[in-house]
Design goal:
26% helix, single chain, alpha+beta, 4-stranded antiparallel sheet, 5-stranded antiparallel sheet
């Protein structure tokens, strides 16, 4: 019992020692304070970013409290002083944020050509100021391949904007794309003899021999229509053609057009809106011609409506999306009805008030 108590106390003490260390490694500390931005006497003509002046450290005229003015210096990258990275004797900084997982002078820098900047050691990786915690890229082979995508010898990754810091600077996420082949990466679609890829991720079920690449992230084969590498459920592949709404091009089929309710922008997951906008330049003749061309090309094939497998994540996503669309339409209709009711009430109130005023005026006239 005594040994167990000593072991428990030892583990408890170690836990209290390690908790502050772990917290420091994961906590995002932003030194920006709008009340500490001022116009000092100095003029930062070379826009050096970090500057020590009269016992204070400034980042573009905003005071960073707690930064050591005697040792602050910008990092050197590719022979040039960085405007957004610096270190003092205590910390490493990105803009106004402390990169708490790094120790000064104990990290390495990789400036990826055509991409971002990585600061890393054996324990932490920071990409453009954001700590990468859920993947472990091979930094030696990591390279930018366009449109926010990166690859190393093992995987394909995507860097996306996640938000802004307190002073309005961007920060990002950096995640591995599961199922992607970095060797087959190409922006947009890529067709090989064996498969079709969307940004390096194989499109399951795509027919290589009949795949046609369209515009705006769309493609189709003899079986399905695709948007950004995913099946557009419910689309009629035979009559799926491009058309125009004013100055904007869209895709339509015999059932409707693909876009939002305003007919202005594509949704992340396009859906079929059965009501064509009035200025859609498409005729039944064009749709019939598209169907005839398809049936000539594939005479013995009858396409079936593409639906996800029951119970699959795709089916759940489709159901949620359809529910969201239905909910939005119900809310829009409810708002429309409320506006009509308010209009009727308003009109009734005006007419009622007018009637009262009219009667009062007639009563006064009779009194005279």
């Amino acid at each position: 019992m005594r040994k167990f108590t000593l072991l428990f106390l030892t583990m408890l003490i170690l836990g209290f020692i390690m908790i502050p260390t772990l917290a420091k490694a994961n906590e995002v500390i932003d030194l920006y304070n709008a009340d500490k931005c001022e116009s000092p006497d100095f003029i930062d003509e070379d826009l050096s970013g970090y500057k020590a002046y009269q016992g204070k450290v400034y980042y573009f005229y905003c005071v960073l409290e707690g930064v050591d003015p005697a040792t602050i210096k910008p990092l050197t990258m590719d022979g040039k002083k960085s405007v957004t990275y610096a270190q003092d004797k205590n910390n490493v900084y990105f803009q106004t944020i402390i990169l708490s997982g790094l120790e000064p002078n104990q990290f390495k820098i990789k400036n990826i050509e055509g991409g971002g900047i990585i600061l890393y050691d054996n324990n932490s990786i920071y990409f453009d100021g954001t700590e990468i915690t859920d993947t472990n890229p091979d930094i030696a082979t990591l390279e930018a391949v366009g449109d926010g995508y990166y690859r190393d010898k093992n995987n394909l990754y995507l860097q996306k904007l996640a938000g802004t810091t307190k002073n309005g600077d961007d920060y990002f996420t950096f995640k591995k794309i599961d199922g992607a082949n970095p060797d087959n990466f190409e922006t947009g679609y890529k067709i090989t003899p064996d498969a079709v890829y969307w940004y390096g991720k194989k499109i399951e079920g795509a027919d290589v021999g009949s795949m046609e690449l369209l515009h705006f992230g769309f493609a189709k084969d003899k079986n399905n229509v695709f948007f950004e590498g995913k099946i557009v459920y419910g689309a009629d592949v035979r009559s799926f053609v491009e058309t125009a709404v004013g100055d904007v091009n869209y895709y339509v089929d015999k059932n409707g057009f693909f876009g939002d309710d305003d007919g202005q922008h594509y949704l992340t997951i396009p859906y079929m809106n059965k009501e064509y906008p009035k200025d859609v330049k498409i005729t039944q003749k064009s749709l019939s011609s598209a169907i005839k061309d398809y049936e000539t090309k594939y005479p013995n094939y009858s396409p079936q409506p593409a639906m996800p497998k029951p119970g699959s994540p795709e089916e759940q996503a489709l159901k949620k999306f359809e529910a969201d669309v239905a909910k939005a339409k119900l809310e829009a209709e409810a708002n429309k009805q409320n506006m009509i009711k308010l209009g009727i009430i308003g009109l009734g109130s005006v007419l009622g008030l007018g009637g009262i005023v009219y009667r009062v005026m007639r009563w006064k006239k009779r009194k005279k």
